[in-house]
Amino acid sequence: MRFLETERQTLEKFMPGLDGQLAAVPLAELERPGNPALALFKASGGPNLLIPADQGGAGATALEATRVMRAIGTRSPSLGVASTMHHFSVASLAEASLGDGFEWMLLEGIAAGNLLLASGFAEGRTGASILAPNLRGEWRDGNLVVTGAKKPCSLSRSMDLLTASVAVTDEGGRERMAVVVIPSDSPGLEIRPFWSNFVLAGAESDEVVLKDVEVPKRLVVMTDSTDHQRPDQLQTSGFIWFELLVTASYLGAACALVEQVLAAGRADAVERAALVIEAESAMAMLEGVARAKDAGEQGEEMLAEVLCVRYAVQDAIGRINRRAVELLGGMAYIGSSDAAYLSAACAGLMFHPPSRTHMSEQLCEHFAGRPLRVG
């Protein structure tokens, strides 16, 4: 069994030809804006990975999806991050209740059209809860009119649909959260430059601005969420999917460095084996969470578990990254930008919500027997 063989076989099963096509393109080209990776991803049927088979999708399990994301991350960290946002959005829609079976019609449409979904769900802002939506909406003539901005928003320039959380005031004056689906060509939706770093620039993480964008009622899901501190069932499930898939993607980027060390064969066997052991142990933790997800585990306990695993793998990625670059040596660092780029890309995981700093007190409270807060 070769290193990463299981992951790449799983990727080949669900997206035939994609791994070889990505491997044939220089890393620097895959990571730049306007890269070919997203087009290759779509052509291989990538958007359908987590759409249930009954709705025309590939029906991958959480375990299979985790392996796919690790494999993609080894070839293109930007594609790993961008496709995570799509898969997380699709998985959230699959678990949402839109009433009258409309969620299945929507998923069937996404599968049939091979559509890409961007995620406009809330993220951390200084002084605000990460569960508090960035967008606001009000009902006018039967439509929800949405205004606001989401930045960064991966897949901003390639998306077919935007899924987003929106703050809506109900008739009783309470602020509730809605989940909306917005076609990318909707009047009032604009894309503006935002991402200035060359690292992960291929993920298209620019700003999406909405100004009085009308969303038909059939594309709006009103939730029961009014608490920006405790996630509801839909938010909890979304967090579990996101943390699992995004962590696997970044682990893939670190494993690309391990693969280079193994291919070079210059470092002492003890050192090379130590890298593989660290990488495989980290993946085993992620697979454990994925298997629990497939077995039906959910809720606060599952979210706490996946967060603990995410932070543990985050630490492992840091150790793998530093040691792999050192073992590759100065000439490899000088002779190609790939190792330096992958090393920089690995750092991205620590910036995805919720950060360890943000969650430390909440996790301590949870393991002392109190409800898990995320906001």
TrEMBL record:
<keyword id="KW-0285">Flavoprotein</keyword>
<keyword id="KW-0274">FAD</keyword>
<keyword id="KW-0560">Oxidoreductase</keyword>
<dbReference type="InterPro" id="IPR036250">
    <property type="entry name" value="AcylCo_DH-like_C"/>
</dbReference>
<dbReference type="InterPro" id="IPR037069">
    <property type="entry name" value="AcylCoA_DH/ox_N_sf"/>
</dbReference>
<protein>
    <submittedName>
        <fullName>Acyl-CoA dehydrogenase</fullName>
    </submittedName>
</protein>
<dbReference type="InterPro" id="IPR046373">
    <property type="entry name" value="Acyl-CoA_Oxase/DH_mid-dom_sf"/>
</dbReference>
<dbReference type="InterPro" id="IPR009100">
    <property type="entry name" value="AcylCoA_DH/oxidase_NM_dom_sf"/>
</dbReference>
